[in-house]
Design a protein that fits this description.
Keywords: DNA-binding, Nucleus, Transcription, Transcription regulation. The chain is mainly β. 5% of the residues lie in helices and 31% in strands. The chain contains one helix and ten strands. It has a two-stranded antiparallel ribbon with strand order 1-8. The protein has a two-stranded antiparallel ribbon with strand order 2-7. The longest helix has 5 residues. It starts with 5 loop residues before the first strand and ends in a 5-residue tail after the last strand.
Length: 95
C-alpha cells in the first residue's frame, strides 16, 4: 500500500507478546474515485466483501520490540479481487 501506513506504538507491557494486525473498514456505503486531485463520490458501493485482516509479519513480538521502532505496514497489499489467494486485504476501489 502506498504510501505505507506507519505507527508508533506505546503503552504496551514490555514482556507480553502481541500480534499487530490491520483491518480496513468502509466508512460509508459510497464508492469513490480520485478526480481533479480530490476524492469524489461515484455512486453506491458494491456489497461488502469478506473480511481479511493483515497480520504484521513481525507478529508475535514483545511489547518492548514493538515500542522500540516505528511499525510499518509497507508489505500490505490491497485488492478488489474477492477470490484472491495471496492473502491480500480485500477492499473495493474505483479507478
Amino acid at each position: 500500500m502506498f504510501p505505507p501506513f506507519k505507527v508508533k506504538v506505546s503503552g504496551l507491557d514490555k514482556k507480553a507478546k502481541y500480534i499487530l494486525l490491520m483491518d480496513i473498514v468502509a466508512v460509508d456505503d459510497c464508492r469513490y474515485k480520485f478526480h481533479n486531485s480530490k476524492w469524489m463520490v461515484a455512486g453506491k458501493a458494491d456489497p461488502e466483501m469478506p473480511k481479511r485482516m493483515y497480520i504484521h509479519p513481525d507478529s508475535p513480538s514483545t511489547g518492548e520490540q514493538w515500542m522500540q521502532k516505528i511499525v510499518s505496514f509497507h508489505k500490505l497489499k490491497l485488492t478488489n479481487n474477492i477470490s484472491d489467494k495471496h492473502g491480500f486485504v480485500s477492499y473495493h476501489f474505483v479507478s
